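for the record, two folds in this file. i put them one after another cuz i was lazy. first one right below, seq on top, structure tokens after. the second one comes after a little note so u can tell where it starts
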Amino acid sequence: MTEPASRARDLNPAAEPAARRLLGRVLEFCRLLKRAGFNVTPSRIVDSFRSLARVELGRREDFRVALRVNLTSSRDEEEAFDRLFAEFWRSENRENDTPHDLESQSIGQETDPEDREKPAGGPQQYGREEVLRTKDLDAEWPGESAAMNAVVKDLARRLATRPSRRFVVGRRGRGIDLRRSWRRNINHGVDILELSRRRRKIRKTRIALLCDVSGSMDTYNPFLLQLMFGLQKACRNSRTAVFSTRTTEITDALRRRTVPEALDEVARLAQDWSGGTDVGGALAHLNRVVLGQGAPRSTIGVIISDGYDQGDPETVRKEMRMLRRRTRSILWINPLIGTEGYAPVARGMAAALPYIDYFLPANDLPGLRALCRTLRKA
């Protein structure tokens, strides 16, 4: 048995033989993907096992999605993955070794990322300096897009502005300011010849953006980068943080003079980019650090994540409850919404759902336009 499978078995010594066989077969499937040209790295394999530990293995669709979000990086790879998955696990059906046989089983938790091993070619240790690696974000940057900037500006306007209780003079305001109208027409006696109008004052709102940059979100990196840059540019009082296994605020980095400088600084700060996922820890950082100051009624929380979490769902629930008190509303953008077979049944996502005001899809420009239309109706 290969080293990662042996490690998972040791972590769960009571695991049934079927569960141990599944670990080995998952590793074989990862090797198949690598031979097919997929970028299957040791860290992605570890993330896959961590995701499998959080889903009900008896649900074949959850099993497939948990592997796909960790082992693919593009739409083309997702389609190829589905074909290979169907072929590979069809043979498992004939051997009576499918995920359906593991209804009550679970895969044990992995160890610290510092102890990850490479599954092929014998065990090979690698430490934090290799897990906390610098991401080449220049290669991910799709370039400036006038259409994208316009949509992001529209999104920022809808999120970060709202009518105040106070009124100001407005030439095209719908309401009539009677007091000002009397003052303007006092020289005309009792006749009111000129009407003064008023409108509600627009109150600025800050956006607290928390963006998932774990391995399962790699496919959406170009979209995420454009969205983060656009929102920070449109709402200068907003704050942005990215998270994977840890959370890093990148607000100041996004304000660099040029995009290349900003990308280099973001990559330097967020060295766990494309790693695992700790949604609960990210929400805790958002609540205690990013939202430590500021009025709750002046803050919109925007979270972009597929919701696959390797932490404790109770932590997610607790932090979402706190975030609910610290913000005016919470918008969760999940790029998987609308994809075939997706349902928010992962435990972390399910724990967060009751506290979300808007749960919407967006992973490209058309999706972002649809999101703006939805917010316009809300």
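(here's the note) second protein begins now
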Amino acid sequence: MIIKTTDLQNVCRKALSAIDTSIASSITEVVELRSIGNSLTVNITNNEYYVSSIIETTSNEELLAVVNAKIFLGLISKITTEEIELSTTQDTLVVKGNGTYKLPFIFENDSLVKVNPINIQEVTNEFNLSSETLKSITKFNSKEFLKSGLRKSTTKLYYIDEEGAITFTSGACVNKFTLPEKISFVVTEKIVKLFSLFDSDEVNFRFGYNMIHDAVQAVIELSNATTKLVAIIGDNDFLLKSVPTVAIRRRANEVYPHSVVVERNALLDALDRISLFSQVDVYVAYTHLEFTNEGLTIYDTKKTNHEQIGYANSDNSLEEWAYSCLVDSNDLKITLEACTAEYVTLNFGNKQAINVVYKNVINIMPECAIN
């Protein structure tokens, strides 16, 4: 079977990002390649999620193989020839591209491993959503996990409901959007990485439950004309209780004593330069922010070096005021790098946190204290 490299890579590279490639991983993901007429179906699973993508081909050669997903997806992602040839022997998938590569089949009890799809037994919600919503979760909420702070199991979850998505570590990211039905569920980083498989304008979403050995498991499904993702959440009700959504949204929507608008690039560039002089305490570098009615001054940890940038709004120029705080330089930098807006709004003044606001996203960044 001959297939265009870019067509196969489009699926493989996106799926590869979600696979645990660590040596210590006990989870083995497999990929099944199955030809149906003039199309190749690529199915990937680890029994917790199931991805199925259909790729059109120019041939109708029969092909069936089940191989290690990490090796296959990684190999296809690195091939630079225009076309890839796939063929099989009795127990091997042969891939021809820049060279010839042999991937052994995965057997169980002398038979080729059977890749079973995951289905939803009882569907409770179904509606269409925009792929832009999925992209915004991946782009904005995922950045929260790059920030400083201890990572517990609950801070590795994406909480999603009809009002938007929330991720949190020491701070939080509140991404506001609207879903057409009342619903709430959580998903893991691995599943959110697979959201990138969907490029179409609309994606069909289904939510429901399966009964597995007397245990109720929540399941989500995303699909379009060529791709389907089904993922088992587990005990959704228990996981929902572990996310402090009410407290996070209350802080995100709080009215702060002060609010200024600054140019995003100006603040990020100044932070980049001043961070070179900031003191590192274990793993954290701190930056002082000093707000006055004249502008925002960015200092290093010892307040030896500084830069000042002006405000894009003039609401605060009518009175004299000043407010100083200490923030994690890396947290602020990651927040600004994720932003795609020209300007950001900074809400502050309660001695607890700074809210960085742009478009429909609110990043809650806690103020720091050095002992």
